[in-house]
Amino acid sequence: MNNAAKLLLLATSLVIPFNLFAKEKPPKAPKLESSLDAYLRSIDEDVSAPETAPGSLYHPSGRYAEFARDLRASQLGDIITIVVADSASALTRGTTRLNRKSSANASVSALGGPTRAAGPLSALAGVGGEQKLDGQGETSRESDLRTTLAARVVRVLANGNLVVEGTKDIGVNSERQRVTVRGVIRWNDLNSLNRITSERISDLEVRIDGKGVVNDSVRRPGFLYRLLLGILPF
Fold first, then answer.
1. Fewest 10 Å CB contacts: which of 38, 57, 81, 89?
2. Alpha-carbon distance 75 to 69, whole Å?
3. Whole-Å CA distances, 117 to 107, 121, 210
4. Which one-letter DSSP state was computed for residue 50?
């Protein structure tokens, strides 16, 4: 076998293992759909034929059909404005104190005959111990969220209450933040401008999701790091 054949055989033996263990690149995650795109898509999928009123001049979807109706939101798809002003604070303090002291003495007054008072056996054993623990801990947490966003009526309950949901996307310098508010409101709590404060919303859910440099720097540590923290005594 000449040198060229040997080199070809060696190159083939090096390339084949890489091809066997090579894995296909995982597909890229789909781009996160914005709330507006999702809403428009749901509207396009739920296109119904317009209602007709044969033999009548009144049409339920006419221009002046709701001239005398209260314009506050009460139907599916109506838009309201939510004023979020939520502030919460919590403080927890704890103090632990422990003081323990113990002592034990033993002596042999006579062992195989009389001994001197100052002899080596006058105080054969003496044990003393003291333990003291003084611990103090404090935990403080504060949150403050103030924003205004528009929400849609996504469901009308049987008792007339409205389930509303609103999403607000904010993007600044490659930082993306999404604020989502959900809850149940009463129709008569809306003012004439279709505005309501967050304190009047039942089962209020406020979620803030972030994506970017700041979110990456404050995200939860990995599993291995948390495991080591739980095992290591220092």
1. 57
2. 12
3. 11, 8, 80
4. P
CB 154 within 8 A of CB 167: no
With contact defined as beta carbons under 8 Å apart, do 198 and 82 qualify?
yes
Do residues 84 and 146 touch, judged by C-beta distance below 8 A? yes
Task: Give the contacts of 85 (CB within 8 A, at least 6 positions apart).
Answer: 145, 146, 197, 198, 199
Name which of 150, 170, 169 is nearest 37 in CA terms: 169
CB 187, CB 196: distance < 8 Å = no
pTM for this predicted structure = 0.51
Distance, CA of 109 to CA of 129 (rounded, Å)? 24
pLDDT in tens, the chain (234 residues): 566 666 666 666 655 554 544 455 555 545 556 666 776 677 666 555 556 666 666 666 666 666 666 778 888 889 999 999 877 777 777 777 777 777 666 665 555 555 555 555 555 566 667 777 777 777 777 778 888 999 999 989 888 899 999 998 888 777 788 889 999 999 889 998 999 999 999 988 888 887 765 555 556 666 676 777 777 665
Q: Could you give phi then psi for residue 165, rounded to 5 degrees? A: -150, 130
Separation of alpha carbons 88 and 145, rounded Å: 9
The dihedrals phi and psi of 175, each to the nearest 5 degrees, come to -105, 125
DSSP 199: G
| Residue whose structure tokens are 């054993």 | 125
Domain boundaries, the chain: 69-88+139-219
Buried b (16+ CB within 10 A) or exposed e, 121-138: eeeeeeeeeeeeeeeeee
